Amino acid sequence: MPKKSIESNKVAIIGCGRVGMTTAFSILHTGVVNELMLFGRDKSKLLGEKLDLEHGVSFLHPVTISISDNYSELADADMIVITAGAAQKPGETRLELAQKNIEIIEYTINQLVKHTLNATVLIVSNPVDVLTYRAYKLAGFPKGQIFGSGTVLDTARFRFHLSEFLGVNPRSIHAYVMGEHGDSSFPVLSSATVGSQPLTEFPNFSETKAKEAYQKARDAAYKIIESKGATYYGIAAVVTNLVKAVLSNAKTVLPVSIPLHDFYGHSGVALSVPYIIGRRGVETVLRPKLNWEEKQALEKSVNTLKQFG
């Protein structure tokens, strides 16, 4: 893949509903994007979104905001964020969304392949693991150029709930949620740390409370959707962080979703484990130590997702 210009930093958001537009607003506060393109079918609505964002730019970092419904205008994008798709309904699992959104992702990826070969593609639409694997197989891009937001939000939620009873800033807690971004995800407690100290040896640690923290993280989306219809602030913060990590070549470690290649013996499915994120997308997989229980949970998550091919 040809080297990208560090100075261009054009980001396109495909799908400008609540997640897409909250993400757009969040990205404008970072200062890492020089051009932000809003991409969708309804240009009249996109025009209103563009104008609304532009009226706040004088208080933010200089940026050009454009709109489009033509895939050829994505040819020079450095990063493409896909949020398009049907939204999760109250009581509906992410996997139940699969068939609706597979058709959308297939069309979108087929168009991208025709017009852009160099952009890093971040998939946010659910079920993110299923869609990421389908997109990876369709596009034929180098490994890591297409990846999903995965369990970054699950991990952030988990660390937040851990912090509530540990009395530590969530940023100082290094504990991951891995696997499916969904009901078969699992927390990795055996190798989690606070600073350099094992989480399980930290003052105030309670395995019961840690499992409760994970359950709150796992079920958070259902609770939010039931309450207000959709989640968008948390995921927008996640996507903004991922965009910054790519465009600034941050080498940040985050649990994003890409196809596994002999990870603890598993291949042929996309799910989340910790990776190093840089300018070329996902660059290096890390292999945290898993105990027997966590390896069983990983296998369960793999088998759950393999049902969708």
Put the structure in a nutshell:
The protein is an alpha/beta fold and 309 residues long. The chain is 39% helix and 21% strand.
Give an overview of the whole structure:
Strand 5 (120-123), helix 4 (128-139) and strand 6 form a beta-alpha-beta unit. This protein has helices at 18-27, 43-54, 98-115, 128-139, 152-166, 207-228, 233-247, 292-306, and strands at 10-14, 35-39, 64-68, 79-82, 120-123, 146-148, 173-178, 186-194, 197-198, 252-259, 270-278, 281-285. It is of the alpha/beta class and 309 residues long. The protein has a six-stranded parallel sheet, sandwiched between helices. The radius of gyration is 19 Å and the shape is globular. The model is unreliable at 1-6 (pLDDT under 50). Helix content is 39%, strand content 21%. It is built from eight helices and twelve strands.
